[in-house]
């Protein structure tokens, strides 16, 4: 999400976070998040009547919706997903004070949001939340943030003499949230001691005016958990525990849509390699909306594609540009001038090697093939993303293989739809998103103090 606080305007972008439900467990110097995909029946987000072709179409729509939310026009009706719910991949569950009991809302996990907000009692307008809103007036630990507080932004909203914030999602805005900036006690379980620990006075937005949200019937979602670069994010407010670093390792695509995984913060955020799997690092630009990477090119089977690297360059004045690592998007999205070269190279390889011809483009994905006997044992093109090395002396490579690029939809759906490339095109200049599917079986460590992204190939299902 490109955040631009509007009174704190935060533009909803993007960030597959498949949506995941997350529970937080603190260690003495870190924390762990349990993650559940949006496809989980527990969340009741994707209709039970969908077959897996329709499920993958829903996920593809999430990625495209994240793209269109950064552009100056709305997505076509065919790829629209419900605002917020349909443009993220992950959720979390928090525990906060509510008198003598705890309020435990499910929130979207969003690395593109710079603030955590939760719908509160007295809201008008509101969206329905099963279990009710946060009753802040009943909490003895809730405190309003004053207009003089350092956390109150310069473009604040004055709400009855207290600091308020308004957030806009989409470009142009499709949804808005306005409310009180408050402090509250949040409780987390320490995974090492098994004790519940209370962290007092964490700032969040108590949302009392929420427009444009379509969470649907029996909705459990109450807001957003922001994990981007901002003094208001929990990443910063709990920096003694997070150390401004987090890691994750997403399982292969088919397991990813049905299996829990974890996100680690602070001392728990550790990745490691060995003699054959070396940990590599690349430069990362952390903004209050996303994490941008410096990409210099793409190769297919060792052949460099004729892509102008300028198409991937970050531009602080144009949120359509840049190469974003985005767990909020299920599949990757490439700017058209890069995608066309990638598609042509893959089509040529499969045609020359096996005589395969792509099926006509359909609504599901742009490049699909009919299933041929023994296709699992065949070799497939290897795609390499080239990144500028941190010292600008060369390039660092990230290798993507068949299981990160293709999915046989018929295997998981019983429907003859075929083998599809989980990468989609968007009009130039982008932005380009490296989605969750392509990040599978790679361990990532975001280290904000060093402006580095570390990664290493790993079998994440284990």
UniProtKB/TrEMBL annotation:
In terms of PANTHER family, this protein maps to: ASPARTIC PROTEINASE CDR1-LIKE (PTHR47967:SF128), OS07G0603500 PROTEIN-RELATED (PTHR47967)
Q: Which GO terms describe its biological process?
A: proteolysis
Q: Which PROSITE patterns match?
A: PEPTIDASE_A1 (PS51767)
Task: Spell out the family assignment given in the record's similarity comment.
Answer: Belongs to the peptidase A1 family.
Query: Domain of life, per the record?
Result: Eukaryota
> What are the protein's UniProt keywords?
Aspartyl protease, Glycoprotein, Hydrolase, Protease
SUPFAM superfamilies assigned to the protein according to its UniProt record, in alphabetical order: Acid proteases
Name it.
Peptidase A1 domain-containing protein
A GO CC annotation recorded here is: extracellular region
Q: Which organism is it from?
A: Saponaria officinalis
* Recorded GO MF terms: aspartic-type endopeptidase activity
Membrane spanning segments where? none
Peptidase A1 domain span: 92-456
């Amino acid at each position: 999400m490109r955040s631009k606080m509007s009174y704190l305007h935060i533009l909803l972008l993007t960030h597959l976070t498949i949506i995941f439900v997350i529970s937080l467990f603190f260690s003495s110097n870190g924390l762990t998040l349990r993650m559940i995909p949006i496809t989980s029946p527990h969340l009741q987000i994707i209709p039970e009547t969908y077959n897996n072709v329709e499920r993958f179409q829903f996920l593809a729509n999430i990625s495209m919706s994240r793209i269109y939310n950064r552009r100056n026009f709305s997505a076509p009706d065919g790829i629209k997903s419900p605002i917020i719910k349909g443009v993220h991949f992950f959720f979390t569950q928090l525990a906060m004070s509510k008198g003598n009991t705890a309020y435990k809302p499910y929130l979207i996990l969003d690395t593109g949001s710079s603030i955590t907000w939760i719908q509160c009692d007295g809201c008008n307008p509101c969206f329905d939340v099963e279990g009710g809103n946060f009753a802040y007036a009943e909490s003895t630990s809730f405190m309003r943030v004053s207009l003089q507080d350092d956390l109150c932004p310069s473009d604040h909203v004055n709400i009855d003499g207290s600091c308020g914030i308004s957030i806009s999602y989409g470009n142009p805005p499709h949804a808005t949230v306005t409310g009180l900036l408050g402090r509250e006690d949040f409780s987390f379980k320490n995974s090492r001691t098994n004790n519940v620990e209370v962290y007092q006075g964490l700032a969040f937005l108590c949302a009392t005016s929420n427009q444009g949200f379509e969470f649907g019937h029996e909705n459990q979602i109450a807001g957003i958990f922001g994990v981007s670069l901002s003094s208001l994010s929990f990443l910063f407010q709990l920096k003694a525990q997070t150390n401004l670093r987090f890691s994750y390792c997403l399982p292969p695509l088919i397991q990813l849509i049905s299996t829990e995984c974890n996100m680690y913060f602070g001392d728990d955020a550790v990745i490691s390699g060995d003699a054959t799997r070396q940990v590599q690092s690349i430069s990362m630009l952390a903004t209050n909306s996303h994490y941008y990477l410096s990409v210099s090119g793409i190769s297919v089977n060792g052949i460099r594609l004729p892509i102008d690297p300028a198409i991937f360059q970050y531009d602080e004045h144009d949120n359509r540009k840049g190469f974003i690592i985005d767990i909020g998007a299920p599949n990757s999205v490439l700017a058209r001038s890069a995608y066309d070269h990638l598609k042509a190279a893959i089509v040529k390889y499969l045609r020359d090697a096996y005589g395969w011809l792509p099926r006509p483009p359909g609504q599901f994905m742009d490049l699909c093939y009919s299933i041929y006997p023994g296709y699992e044992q065949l070799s497939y093109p290897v795609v390499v993303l080239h990144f500028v090395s941190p010292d600008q002396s060369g390039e660092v490579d990230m290798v993507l293989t068949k299981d990160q690029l293709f999915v046989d939809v018929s295997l998981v759906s019983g429907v003859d739809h075929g083998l599809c490339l989980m990468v989609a095109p968007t009009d130039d200049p982008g932005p380009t998103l490296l989605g969750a599917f392509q990040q599978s079986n790679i361990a990532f460590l975001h280290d904000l103090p060093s402006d580095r992204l570390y990664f290493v190939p790993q079998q994440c299902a284990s």
